[in-house]
Each structure stands twice: as structure tokens, then as C-alpha cells.
Amino acid sequence: MCAQYQQLSDALEPVGPFQVVAEWEWGEKQVLQLVLAKGLLEPTWDFVPVGNRLRFDLTFVLERAMKWKLVDWDAPRLKYFWYTKPLLDLQPVLVLMNHGQFQGSSLEAFADKGKGSEVPLLYRQGRFPEILAYVTREKEAALEVIRESLGVLGDLGDRRRRV
Length: 163
Prior knowledge:
The chain has one domain. It contains 7 helices and 4 strands.
């Protein structure tokens, strides 16, 4: 397990250092404790996840946090979280960029970041610096698509906005 985060400005530009916390250095429970302390699973605007296919990532974090008994959520709490947690997920944007097709709408289809499917092999081989390089490229790729989408969608919004 590896978690990475960086503060973004209101214009979605990086502010401060890019932080990567990895299970192979900290231990899985400690990584989870850190991201939970940041507010990842809190339905507030203090920590807004930005990324691609966040439902997968957040579900994974939640399952692992439940395993370690760091959270104990029932169905109503889970529903409340999914309906109130602010997040910015690129997945719908990538689907639209792919002419509405889900197949082929991965971030790697639109950005030079490499294949995420290679990461488990890198992990098994202990090639941790390469994983860190991958997550850094992935972050840059996501921000690049966000920046460009913000311009295009912002212009579309300006044209379509009814005042």
C-alpha cells in the first residue's frame, strides 16, 4: 500500500511538497493511520481527494482500515460518506474524452505515465524506487489532464451558463 498526497490551490495547482507514504517503509497500519488523520474518510472539505477512479482507491482504504479496526462503519455510515464526501475524480472526464466509451478510458490512454498493472510486479521484486517514480509520474499526468480539462470545461461552462 502506498498513499500520496499534495495540497492543491483553488486553481488545482500544487502547493508544497508531494508526500508519499509507503507500507514498505511505514507499515500498512501506520500509512492508514496517517491518511485517516489527514481526513481522507471524513465528509469535510478539509481533505478533498483528487485522482482517477477514486471509488476504487477509497474503498480499498476503507476495507484495509476496517481490517485494522481503525474504523467501524455500518451501511448507513458508508452511504453517508459516499453521498457527502467531496472529491474530484477524473474517471467521468476520461470517459467523455474517450467519446463516452468506458473501455479505453484509462489515464494511461491520455497521459504518459506508464501502466499501473506493472506496480504489483515492481513491489514483489522490491523495486520501490521505481514505484515511487511511477506514482510521481501518475500524479503529474493526472494534474496535466485536470489543468487542460479545467480550461476546456470552464470555457464550456462560461458559454452554457444561464445567468
